[in-house]
Specification:
Strand content: under 5%
Structural class: mainly alpha
Oligomer: single chain
Distance between the termini: 60 Å
Number of helices: 10
Order of helices and strands: HHHHHHHHHH
Largest sheet: none
Amino acid sequence: MTESNQPVCLNCGSKTAEDYCISCGQSTSVGRITFRETINDFFSSTFALEGPLFSTIKLLIVNPGRLFREFISGRRKNYYKPVAFFVVLTAVYLILREASGYDPFHGQQRMQSENIPDRAVLFVAAGKFMVANINNILFFLVFSIGLTQKLFFYKKYNLAEYLVVGFFVAGIYLLIGMAYILFTVFVFYVHPQINMLFLFLLILYASISFHLNVTFSSVIKHILASLMAVILYVILGYGFSVLMVYFGLG
């Protein structure tokens, strides 16, 4: 194979004739993101933590769209894998919530002593289940972001690639949750509903940064996509919680 016909590493741009780039180590057979790759990533992330975590977090805060575009296009060695990113931050979130003594049911002891209509008991219990198991419910957020991005911007990427965006955004949302816990525990109590506003703004910011559309019509499209993602997340997460409580699994 001549030098001009050598494959080019999608991560660093170096030419190489090997299965792995000699410059950065990424596989030269990187293709489009698929569900199979995402599932393999999920299981491998349980046992192996790879990639520069803090530089990934920094870029997700400063310019998330750049990270999304580069990761999807094949430049993956420089960034933390999305599923591993989500799993690690979920673990840190749970550890912080436990260590800080944060009470997700703050102020609800009074509500328990009041007379709650029988028909409302299930829904109150489902709400508590959703809050207590938010680490599992967040998978619905990943799906909601991926699906709404695909619905509104269907021509650019496939659903699996949009789910990558969902995992990264959900990871950053976990960081916001950690900041909220610390603020609530050590400064003063803030109602958790404010997290929904932060979530909407986070998805909107990530969507605009990802697609680089700033016209009036495109911004409206981003707003609708972000709002629908939040609504779908609440519907799916709360609906799942209702089913779990109803069948006695919660």
